[in-house]
Design brief:
This protein is α+β, with helices and mostly antiparallel strands. The chain has two domains: 166 residues, Orthogonal Bundle (Endonuclease III, domain 1), CATH 1.10.340; 103 residues, Nucleoside Triphosphate Pyrophosphohydrolase (Alpha-Beta Complex), CATH 3.90.79.10. The protein has twelve helices and six strands. It is globular, with a radius of gyration of 24 Å. Bound molecules: iron/sulfur cluster. Iron/sulfur cluster binds next to helix 7 and helix 11.
Length: 291
């Protein structure tokens, strides 16, 4: 939940989630629909799907026990080097480092080198004796990430309280490397077309859109803005929406119709039981103003 999301946003979700699913087994016995409904509003829904798929695989294939090697743990859905190392360190107390942006910055600053010029894996292996000189590996994995987030911060690092300030090359150098954790923001323009059933207050949705974001979710017809034929559509609104590092300028069009294309299904605008991503909810809200 914490990937790309702040702690204060995650907390209420985490508490509700762990109360409902106190074990991997209970999670694996749930359904993707239920998990997504509980995740609603948190975004990055692939995390929820992977978590659910992981729980099932661990229960069925690994008899309820997390694999103990990086190779094996990476066979689980959504687990790469970063999460794999974090889990092995935190769960099994193995000497591991979870290389996230914060940790890479700590290393880069200490060497006063650009991240791009560092082979992090080689660096960790050749310094393993010093790095893992602890019997608290699980805490060390977490602490290193927190250290980057709270002390060796992207801006204004707290060098005066830092335990590494005697040896840190960044602090001592007159030519300090620049660190940046700016996300690459992409801008896109999309036209969204909503078939609306006036009598039943319904909107037609499909999983047919293949846009990369919100893949496999029910959405109205979405097309990248170009010379789309919009003559028979009425403009409802223009607004902006952000998904991950994508900033989208949206023209929302509608058409009252009782007929919908193949692969579309009617959804009630008042449907509150099913999982609906906030991107779609926002569309529902605007279409509701037509009634
Ligand atoms: S001395 Fe400053 S720059 Fe160096 S590791 Fe500590 S906080 Fe980061």
């Amino acid at each position: 939940m914490l990937q790309q999301t702040q702690v204060k946003t995650v907390l209420p979700y985490f508490n509700k989630f762990t109360k409902k699913f106190p074990s991997l087994e209970s999670l694996s016995k749930s359904s993707e629909k239920q998990i997504l409904k509980m995740w609603e509003g948190l975004g990055y829904y692939r995390r929820a799907r992977n978590l659910y798929a992981c729980s099932k695989k661990i229960i069925v294939q690994y008899k309820g026990k997390l694999p103990k090697t990086l190779n094996e743990i990476k066979k689980l859905p959504g687990i790469g080097d970063y999460t794999g190392n974090a889990l092995l360190g935190m769960v099994y107390d193995q000497p591991r480092i979870a290389l996230d942006g914060n940790v890479k910055r700590v290393f880069a600053r200490n060497l006063n080198k650009k991240e791009i010029n560092i082979d992090f894996n080689k660096l960790i292996v050749s310094n393993s004796k010093t790095l893992f000189n602890t019997n608290r590996n699980a805490d060390f994995v977490e602490a290193l990430m927190e250290f980057g987030a709270l002390i060796c911060k992207p801006k204004n690092p707290k060098c005066f309280v830092c335990c590494l300030n005697k040896t840190c090359k960044y602090l001592r150098s007159s030519k300090k490397i620049r660190t940046s954790n700016k996300k690459m923001i992409r801008n896109k323009n999309y036209d969204i077309f909503c078939f609306v059933n006036k009598k039943n207050k319904q909107i037609a949705l499909t999983k047919k859109n293949n846009l990369g974001f919100l893949k496999n979710f029910n959405l109205p017809m979405i097309k990248e803005s170009n010379d789309n034929n919009i003559k028979s559509w009425k403009l409802l609104s223009n607004y902006r929406n952000s998904i991950s590092n994508l900033k989208i300028n949206i023209n929302l069009y509608y058409k009252f119709s009782n007929k919908i294309p193949v692969k579309y299904n009617w959804y009630s605008l008042e449907n509150n039981k099913e999982f609906i991503p906030s991107f779609t909810k926002r569309i529902f809200k605007q279409v509701s103003t037509l009634f």
